Amino acid sequence: MIPRRLLSGALPVATAFAVGLLLLLSVDAPPFEAIQLIFKGALGSLGGVSSTLMAWVPLVLAAAGLVVTFAAGLWNIGIEGQIVMGAIAGAFVARTVEAPSGVVLPLLLLAGIAGGLLWGLLVGVLRVYGRVNEIFGGLGLDFVATGLVVYLVIGPWKRAGSASTSGTDLFPREAWLPVTGKLTASWLALVVAAAAVVAVYFLMRGTYFGLRLRAVGANSRSAFLMGISTNRHLLAAFSICGALAGLGGALHASGFHHKLVPSVSGGYGFLGILVVLLAGFGARWIAPIAFFFAVISVGSTQLQLRLQLDSALGGVLQGVLVLFTLLAGGWQLRRAYRSRRGLKEGG
Amino acid sequence: MSLELRGIHKRYGAVHANDGVDLRLEAGAIHGVLGENGAGKSTLMKVLSGFIVPDAGEVVLDGKPVPLGSTRAAIRAGIGMLHQDPLVFLPFTVLDNFLLGCGRRVSRATGARELERISTEFGFHFDPGAPVRSLTVGERQQLEITRLLWLGARVLILDEPTTGISAVQQERLFATLRALADKGMIVAFVSHKLEEVEALCTRVSVMRRGQVVGEAALPCPTDRLVEMMFGRVLTPPPRETAAPGDPVLELAELRTAERASGAAITLTVRAGEVIGLAGLEGSGQRPFLRTCAGLARPSAGRLRVGGRDLSAARYRDFLAAGVHFLPAGRLEEGLIGGLSITEHFLLTGGSRRFRIDWAAAETEAGARIADNLIVGRPGSTAGELSGGNQQRLLLALMPPEVRLLLMEHPTRGLDLESADWVWRRLLERGRQGTAVVFASADLDELLRYSDRILVFFAGRVLREVAAGETSGEELGYLIGGKEMP
Known about the structure:
The structure holds two protein chains of two kinds. Chain A is globular. By secondary structure, chain A is mostly helical. In chain A, helix 3 (46-71) packs parallel to helix 7, helix 3 (46-71) packs across helix 12 and helix 4 (79-96) packs antiparallel against helix 5 (101-130). Chain A has helices at 2-26, 31-43, 46-71, 79-96, 101-130, 134-154, 187-206, 208-218, 220-225, 230-257, 268-278, 286-299, 301-307, 312-346. By secondary structure, chain B is α/β, with parallel strands linked by helices. Chain B has helices at residues 41-48, 71-77, 94-99, 108-121, 137-150, 167-182, 194-200, 222-230, 285-293, 315-320, 330-333, 341-348, 358-371, 387-396, 416-431, 443-449, 472-479, and strands at 2-12, 15-26, 30-34, 56-61, 64-65, 79-82, 155-159, 186-191, 203-208, 211-217, 247-256, 265-270, 274-278, 298-305, 308-309, 323-326, 404-408, 435-439, 452-457, 460-466.
């Protein structure tokens, strides 16, 4: 049993690796040097490790939230917008509340949670009461959130003197997350993110709420007939996911950029979808997978600096990996289905 | 010219939808294929038209084998099928629909001329530019027939074509079919309605449980057809009934929303009573049960459960009033395929706690599995269970206090032993005061377990009969929409 499971996990990774190598060869890049550069860039220096960890935080929070919405059978494409709204709400607190860190930071994180939660809930309300598919509603709200952040950065919250898309003024020091020794990554962000992953894991596996959510996601019709309020559970799933995404956005703005930037979501929401797909929709493996993705994301910027390759190559590698994992999963399902059918007809 | 089907087999999971069917259709005759729902007629016709691939068997037209599993090959060979719901594209125009799928380049002008030529021949009138959405179902059928003829169909299969069309259009359709048969075409008319088959066809093959059980030249005595359709049903000894208790379900002039045309239903069901709903599928039992379960609002009339007016109540209120509904689709609207037996018990257990105690839950699930004779482990998913065990699980999930139990096909697909077990459980509930209302296609089941039987036909209750005073033969007639002579 174990060797087969190992194989089913290793096969797509190996295939993706091979395709990645071919890809690098096709652009005349030395493949092994490129991979070495990625890992060196992400883990080879204190700055690199800090960047990787701070990329991991919003990514793993988004993935944790998406585990909840996927369990309810929802494609929360609006997660990017939820991250952005969390960052905006956090930035609002950072810019307006003048108080010591002990007061500002809890408020900032709560604001981030609230911002993401409301934005997520909006997708849910559109879906439940407006019959707008969550994919379309979420995508639309992504654009609204992105537009809003750009407006804020070059408009009302522009830097003193000149408006620039490079971001607002830096937050006051009290609104920066505390750093960890020599690392600029914040222990607070790491602890919060790790706690969120554990909480989601427990929520989905150990509670009635999680079970009902899975029931709604697996067959909302049967769940409704059992007396489960499907609408309420869908809204709750969007709220939880939005809250976690918003928290990630606020942590990222306060702990990494120390200001609001237009690209504050950094694509971590969409990347989070890939993480959850690769993790088989469960919370158990999202932390290491998200870390791996953070390494590739941060490290691939080195490709541009050292090999004059576009850093988007890292994204392509991530995509190839997910694609092959899904293909392998689909192939296994098919085989399982066939062998079961064969069994029935034989017996 | 003749069309032959030889040894057709088709299985869907455990269901043997076509079990070695041999059928021969001759040119110049309208051949009826009669049988109740689920007898395997539609599957057979879909095999014939290339819509589905059979597991075994062959189709021979005019001595030449027809490639199976391709609608394109079937229509090339001259086999055209008119589906129960005409397969038209509603937003497209009449001409677009006519030209779609012809497989060659035809100018619109030529197409329009051909449409005009063929439709005039049969007295149809179409506006080529009108959207098909504006056509009645009958007109859509006429368009499909015209199209199939243009594509060179020599065999025309009609699957339950009279559902949803008016009496006038039905007359027009029958006239067309007679004309086509006179021209030497093979016409296969699939129906579960005795009257139509008797009125239209010259020969009839009767299917039951996936097999052709008999053939007859028409006219022939109706009771012979009824017997072939349903098998010989022995009237069981009357069931001893307890004195009925207080009214549980009271319907006054109730109309279901789905069929505004259906007649209003007035009915009182008392505690401990068992009411059977007979009739072919799609005759109105389904919306009736769904309305009583609170899943659809009645369009008119009153509905009371245990004395409480629930005419405008929500599903949740029905649950609170002690109504429990077991629909036919066990994995669609009852169980959740991917969840385990333990998880099902947890979901329906009504616990108000936050955390799940998995160890205790597994132990309890194990005990209830043994109690209910389910073959499975606490960790087995509902989707892995056989049909009989899924039904046992559904019954095991029923809350202890049920005032009114509504069921669709409680024993469909179960072997005799499982069916017997299910009914012993249900009757036990009845003795405790639960009123049971169930729809079934099995006459034997209806006669054996009901106190009263409501026969549905074409969306209304045709008759209410006491189970002790009727017979399988009479039910067969009533289900086909006829009074027994």
